[in-house]
Amino acid sequence: MTINAPVRDELLAEFENAWRDGAPVFGCCRKTVATALAGVDPVSLLAEDATTRVTALRAAVEADMPGHLDGHRCCVGHLADLAFDLPDMMGDRMASTA
Fold it and tell me: How confident is the model at residue 20 (pLDDT cuts 50, 70, 90)?
């Protein structure tokens, strides 16, 4: 699945700093978020509830990196953050392009 590169880059930029929302962001976390965003269309997830968004992001990672999330709670946490924050993150972007 491919998405608009500027959208993907903007979402990934949220995880570039060493910390996000009080949680450390490691290299494995950045790779996991990038893998998740490569496997889903975030715009199509906007209408879904948070549980569905989390499930879709986790499934995308599991398809490309089987078992990774079992040993990386840090990555799981950032996927959950992405799922919960996605409407706000994308809403801000959609509003700025309107």
Answer: very high
d(CA 62, CA 64): 5
Can you tell me which residue has the tokens 């499930």? Answer: 55
More confident residue, 94 or 86: 86
Higher pLDDT, 85 or 4: 85
Distance CA 24, CA 15 (A): 9
Q: What is the 3-state secondary structure (H, E, C) of the chain?
A: CCCCHHHHHHHHHCCCCCEECCEECCHHHHHHHHHHHHHCCHHHHCCCCHHHHHHHHHHHHHHHCCCHHHHCHHHHHHHHHHHHHHHHHHHHHHHHHC
Residue 89: partners with Cβ closer than 8 Å, 6 or more residues away? 10, 11, 14
What pTM, to 2 d.p., does this model score?
0.87
Instruction: Count other C-beta atoms under 10 Å from residue 21's C-beta.
Output: 11
